[in-house]
Amino acid sequence: MNGYWNKDMNSRCSTNHSRITIQIKTHKTMMKRKTLQLLTGALLCQPLSAGELQAQEQDKERPNILFILSDDHTSQSWGIYGGILAPYVKNDNIKRLADEGCVLDNCFCTNSISAPSRVTILTGAYSHLNGVRTLEDSFDRNQDNIAKQMQAGGYQTALFGKWHLKTQPSGFDTFSVFHDQGEYINPVFKTAENWKDDTEGRYGTEEKGFSTDLVTDKCIQWMEERNTDKPFMLCCHFKATHEPWDFPERMKHLYDDVTFPEPDTMMEFDTIASGRTFTGRQLENMGWRWEQASKGPWWCQYPELPFSTEGMDSISARKKIYQKMIKDYLRCGATIGRLLRYLDEKGLAKNTIVIYVSDQGYFLGEHGFFDKRMMYEEPLRMPFVIRYPKEIPAGTRNKDIILNTDFAAMLADYAHVKTPNKSQGQSFRDNLAGNTPENWRKDMYYRYWTHHTIRPAHIGIRNERYKLMFLYGNKLDATGSDDTPTAPAWEFYDLQKDPHENHNAYKDAEYAPVIKEMKARLLELRKEANDEDRNSEVMQEIIKKNF
């Protein structure tokens, strides 16, 4: 029924009864019309049934959800996870959420790259099941996802900001998202009214301003105009802190005259000392990008160019690249303060779950790298903080192994809706309240599908102390990959003794029994995740020869 809620009468009244059209020719006819209107209104304003009243009260009790997702906002730059950059990070609002909620210390992604991680968050499924294994893959919008389940369960749903899944969002009552991954300055937004898939070219409406501010504006406006009788799930997806790390003018002078400390491993120019088995994306490539963009048009707009390391020795050049990267990166960070203040001002904070999380982590000079993808701690970790005053104890930290496959199940649990039908995750609602189930996972499975010779495709297992990676080095049928395979290789790290993964201990005799057990367990995890490459003879042969 198309109507409004009359809260004083606990009744539902149609907004259409006053629009009944009757020809008015005489005073008598007019009187008949008024009588008909009154009768119609009486019929349409009926007391709510007990079941309807109960549903209305349940909706008032179910929490709102504000899910804030940033891009590449790695734990080293949050301040609440420690590290050399902690004293320099402007993190008052992240710290506020941490003080008022719970920080996850061991939250990990299952495929450290933007689009695949985002689809896993939506569906609760590993990449091989949700169909988005690489950046080149498109999301099948007909798949079930947590937004669709929220809709079916009576939630209002909205999405603003970065989508990056090529096809039109589904499950959202309202959305306004960037074309592709968006721009920092004057981004193009797409809605249901002007939608074309990213593969059809650059379409949408350009809006003036800085992307983070525009996305925040849209979120606040939507909350202001929403139906206050229903709970909501609002997804606020920032572009920050993704390359090219542009920033608003107000942040321009934030780090003037600051020299940032460097990671201990930043001057690794080869793999001899560490025993690493791959080259990686080294900082010099970032410097090359800036130099190319300084000469003419580039795929994105970097701030504060021109840049050059011409004539510098390798150590001085790497230092210069690092300093610019960190200065840009820290100035472009997502800002969440306005959203938190809005919840406070409107009296929504108590019954709103607020989550701030990054889609994956990022190398910030560690091992001489930038970017993500590899199963090292920096890209693997998803910094995550959640606040829900009704249930989550303030100022707590949780060390359980939580995965992005778990997010949909957790949200569904709080909202009393079904999980998406492909979900492979578990709700960690009890964990957040301090009641971790006895059978909670003790290890996790990872797979990065895209194969490049400098960053080979690989699988891996991480438990509370050890990590084992198998770089199988073959594109198989993964899109966006190099054709040239690399020799299969192993890496093993004792994270208790070597938390920064400086020494590949795969060949150390003392760890042989542990490695044997972890290889067997890795195969078990592949089976549990239903990721055994049954249709790939190439991968079957690689596994047979190396396990």
Secondary structure: number of strands? 21
Largest sheet: 10 strands, mixed
Provide the gyration radius in Å: 26 Å
Low-confidence stretches: 1-45
Computed structural class: alpha/beta
Distance from first to last alpha carbon? 62 Å
- Strand portion: 15-25%
Question: What's the overall average pLDDT, rounded?
Answer: 91
Count of helical regions: 15
**Neighbour order of strands in the largest sheet:** 10-9-8-7-11-4-12-15-5-16
Describe the global form: globular
Helix content: 25-40%
How does this model look, in words?
The longest helix is centred in the N-terminal third of the chain and has 18 residues, at 27-44. A hairpin with a 4-residue loop joins strand 1 and strand 2. It contains 15 helices and 21 strands. It is an alpha/beta fold and 547 residues long. The radius of gyration is 26 Å and the shape is globular. The protein has helices at 27-44, 50-61, 92-100, 114-123, 127-130, 146-152, 211-225, 283-295, 314-331, 337-345, 377-380, 407-415, 429-432, 512-528, 537-546, and strands at residues 3-6, 11-14, 46-47, 64-70, 102-104, 107-108, 156-161, 174-178, 188-190, 205-206, 232-237, 352-358, 363-364, 370-371, 384-387, 396-398, 402-403, 443-448, 458-463, 466-471, 489-494. Helices cover 29% and strands 16% of the residues. It has a ten-stranded mixed sheet, with helices on both faces. It has a four-stranded antiparallel sheet with strand order 18-19-20-21, covered by helices on one side.
